[in-house]
Amino acid sequence: MFKIDKLNVKIKDTDKEILKDFSLTIDKGEIHAIMGPNGVGKSTLSKAIMHHPDYVIESGSITYNGKTLNDLTTDEIARKGIYLLMQDPSIIDGVSNSEALRTALKERGSDTNLYSFITKMKKELDSLNLPKDAMHRSINKGLSGGERKKNEVLGLKVLTPSFIILDELDSGLDVDSLKVVANNINDYLKENKDTSVLIITHYSRVLDLIKPDYVHEMKDGKIIKTGDITLAKQIEKTGFTGVNEVEPSENYE
Amino acid sequence: MNNILLDSAISFSKEGTFKLELDKDTTISVESDNVKLYLVTKNNIKVDFNILNSTTIYNITRESITANINIYNNAKLDFYEMAVTDKEITNEVNVYHKNKETTSNVTCHGISYGKGDLKFSVNGYIKKGMIGSICNQSSRIINLDEGKSSIKPNLFIDEFDSIANHSAYTGPFDEKLLFYLETKGISKKEAFNLLLNGFMKVVELPIDYESVLDNILDKVMRR
After folding, report:
1. Do B198 and A95 touch (CB under 8 A)?
2. Structure confidence at residue B47 as a pLDDT band (50, 70, 90)
3. Distance separating alpha carbons of residues A197 and B33, to the nearest angstrom
4. In chain A, positions 61-80, which contact chain B (CB-CB < 8 Å)?
5. pLDDT at position A182, please?
6. What's the CATH class of domain A2-238?
């Protein structure tokens, strides 16, 4: 079980509070989606979970399978089985995908046998429609936005996490690439039924492809509504609560 | 790969890959096409290059060096400098486009660690009449510990019909990159080592040459 309890998060070296008494519980195998307009703290949430150095947890707790993550480092959190698929994955010139992923497996004490690693990489590259030589290329270098997302899914399938955070999965992806990426994630979830997912998104289109059990609407650093997919559809239709809402006007004649 | 004991002047008239260790002032002329030179330079020397055909040069150094590069004919030069130091050193690279339609791509990467003070001075010269010449520079130095650094990228361009670009960066590794690798479960130390290796081996190096760089980087990683 993944649990966030009354989490308060500030931007480092400022008084700007982004998450305010934020609480959320995700059980094994559940898929939750958080929707909200720009600036409500959705991406901050994903970064705060992974202890991004720009954010400070003021109070509250994050626990995963009964263990508190508050005092762990980013890499320790990742090794607990949490994987952040970033909205804007970094480009790292000179460090190849295979070097990074093999190092990550080694740090987990997993099998890093070269033959089985290469075989696994080739299989996953194929399923993501990425060229075979992508494993030897610098991380995300020369890739389009969509290919970078695919590359992140490659990491997911190799590192086999049990809790996945998808931060704006559909940004930078065309319709076809979004389908490929979503199909790969769905395949992974079928094979790993206990894996939980937290989807962070503006739009419901990604939720048509990766079906959530729960949809939450976020505003001012906390969840204000919870429902199922119909909440996402309602948001798509009428907009987020309190944004662009039109007060009924009196009819003067 | 060939190891060559050098006189103070040498010319390459056949294509191939050559590994050289230089510890005194030297003049190198490249006449053949497709020559790759792997250099390890010592003793604060000056090296003059006369490039008459397509050439790639890689230089690893822990000490000061002055490289004066003259490019002739329609030659294209790719020059990579890799400097790692905990001392005060200056690497000067001067590129002179001596004929029309000559091309230079100069990439200088450095690590300044301990109490190091690494200076890059990279100068590209295209005189009037050298139509169609291209002069590109990219210089980056990563500072570790109390290491200091500076880059002086200069382009002296007198010909309108030419292309010249430069970029320079000094500072630590971007926190964003470390965070990215850490989110994969890689410890800060290993993430740092991956970035360090990647930064210095941004081009593919032959195995024995890579081991020279490994030996130098090993000291930085274990510090």
Report:
1. yes
2. very high
3. 56
4. 73-75, 78-79
5. 92
6. alpha beta
Mean pLDDT of A70-80: 95
Task: Decide: helix, strand or coil at residue A127.
Answer: helix
Delimit the domains of chain A by residue range: 2-238
- Smallest CA-to-CA distance from B110 within B102, B101, B119 is with B119
d(CA A238, CA A245): 9
The reported pTM is 0.85
CA distance A203 to A213: 16
Answer yes or no: do B183 and A74 touch at CB < 8 A.
yes
User: What is the average per-residue pLDDT within B92-103?
Assistant: 97
Q: Within A160-218, where are the H helices?
A: 175-191, 205-209
* Separation between Cα atoms, residue A184 and residue A34, nearest integer Å: 21
The DSSP call for residue A248 is: P
Nearest to A156 by CA among A113, A131, A120: A120
Confidence of residue B210 (pLDDT cuts 50, 70, 90): confident
Question: In this structure, are strands A82-85 and A163-167 parallel, antiparallel, or unpaired?
Answer: parallel
Give the angle subtended at the CA of A37 by the CAs of A33 and A42, to the nearest 5°: 50
* Closest C-alpha to B124, from B86, B170, B165: B165
Which backbone phi and psi does A17 adopt, to 5 degrees? -90, 125
Query: Exposed e or buried b for every residue in A175-190, given b needs 16+ CB within 10 A?
Result: eebbebbbebbeebbe
pLDDT band for position A248 (cuts 50, 70, 90): very low
Chain B residues whose CB is inside 8 A of the A84 CB are 183
Whether the CB-CB separation of B133 and B165 falls below 8 Å is answered with: no
Output the pLDDT for position B2. Answer: 54
Residue owning tokens 């003067």:
A252
Burial B97-113 (b: 16+ CB within 10 A, else e): bbbbebbbbbbbbbbbb
Q: Read off the pLDDT band of B219 (50, 70, 90).
A: confident
**B88-97 vs B65-71, strand pairing mode:** parallel
A211 - beta bridge partners?
Answer: none
Place of tokens 């994969």: B184
